Amino acid sequence: MEKKALRGFNLKIAEGEFITVIGSNGAGKSTLLNAIAGETLPTSGSIRIDNQDVTDWPSYKRASFVARVFQDPLAGTCGDLTIAENLALAHQRGKCRGLVSALSRKDKEEYAAILKKLNLGLESRLDTSISLLSGGQRQAISLIMATLSPLKILLLDEHASALDPKTAAFVMELTQDIVAEKKITALMVTHSLQQALHVGTRTIMLHEGRVIYDISGEERKKITVADLLQQFSASIDDDRLLLQQ
């Protein structure tokens, strides 16, 4: 029997919203990000970004306004290149990549100024191979790379879950600072119910390819992790009842 990853799915995201996405395994979280990024093209329905129909656009065509940070810190950077070269590649995201000149002093000064804000000492290591950095350092740079050029939407795919608690907290704080400073629209998939309620401005819960819970504003501020778990259990039970009827 065919199982659709997303079905009857309808989601409107306002500019500047920061949505956390939760749900059990197989709920459709990664498929949602893949569909927005253009990695998976839908068999029906439509995807619009800034009133532009991008439903049939592949990922490379959306790259100028959709960026993604993955769970694996190695996925967002190229280990064979230096920190500066990785940042230069990110700066060209969505643009024609013909032959380009070597990194200029101005480029390196700009990248150093950005990295200095991280307080990791990376501004003095621009010519270091990125493969020599820790997972947390690479994930921090992945965030910088994803948001280096103007974009419409940032997709965060459990991007702190592979890190130790202290590093994960740093990356989450950096994420919130960047999103707020640049007023970016963002979707973050997370398995942490604590993060789901305390990061961003809106939380949605997926189950079997549908949105079963959507909360924001003052109402979101009042609920607890226990409330969220109860809502999840109740929604699943309602879903099973509907299937039996």
Given helix and strand content, the structural type is: alpha/beta
| Helix content estimate | 25-40%
| Main pleated sheet | 6 strands, mixed
Tally of individual helices:
9
Number of strands: 8
Shape field = globular
Distance between the termini: 19 Å
Q: Give the strand line-up of the largest sheet.
A: 4-5-6-1-7-8
Unreliable segments (pLDDT under 50, ≥5 consecutive)?
Answer: 240-245
Write down the secondary-structure element order. Answer: EHEEHEHHHEHEHEEHH
Strand content: 15-25%
Mean pLDDT: 88
C-alpha-based Rg, rounded: 19 Å
Features:
single chain; 15% strand; 245 residues; alpha/beta; 9 helices
Descriptive account of the structure:
With 245 residues, this protein is an alpha/beta fold. Helices cover 39% and strands 15% of the residues. The chain contains nine helices and eight strands. It has helices spanning 29-37, 59-62, 83-91, 105-116, 135-146, 165-182, 193-198, 217-222, 225-244; strands at residues 18-23, 48-49, 52-53, 66-69, 153-157, 185-189, 202-207, 210-216. The strands form two sheets. The chain has a six-stranded mixed beta sheet, sandwiched between helices. Strands 2-3 form a two-stranded antiparallel sheet. A hairpin with a 2-residue loop joins β2 and β3 (52-53). α5 (135-146) packs parallel to α6 (165-182).
Write the layout of secondary structure elements.
Elements: E1 18-23, H1 29-37, E2 48-49, E3 52-53, H2 59-62, E4 66-69, H3 83-91, H4 105-116, H5 135-146, E5 153-157, H6 165-182, E6 185-189, H7 193-198, E7 202-207, E8 210-216, H8 217-222, H9 225-244
Helix pairs in contact: 3-5, 5-6
